[in-house]
Amino acid sequence: MRDSRGAVLPIPALIAAAVVCFALSLYATTLHDRDPGVDRSVLRPATADALEAASDAGVVAPPRLAAALTAIPEGYEANITLRAEGERWSAGPEPPGGVSDTDTRAATRVVSVRIGQGQFQPGEFEVILWS
Hints:
The chain is of the alpha+beta class.
């Protein structure tokens, strides 16, 4: 009676193992050299969190800018500025003058701003973030 166990020839098995090892090493070296870039930056989620903290039903109220500073991640400082109808409101420290562009990140979003009771104007919500 024939043996029912399967067998693999050693040469094709070694070639398959070498191909898998080569593919894994190529993948690992490609990822190692990759720069995370702006997409992995903390700026985008920090801006979204600050905007959510400063708004009520999608409308930003100038008195709530101070509350937006609490949404900034630990280890970072931020200046949050709101502009609408020629007026400007700001919360947080001014960005340092000696900080380079690589250390400072800024994001601006167009928002609706509550100017008064029942009065809304389009405006800009800007977050400047540095560490």
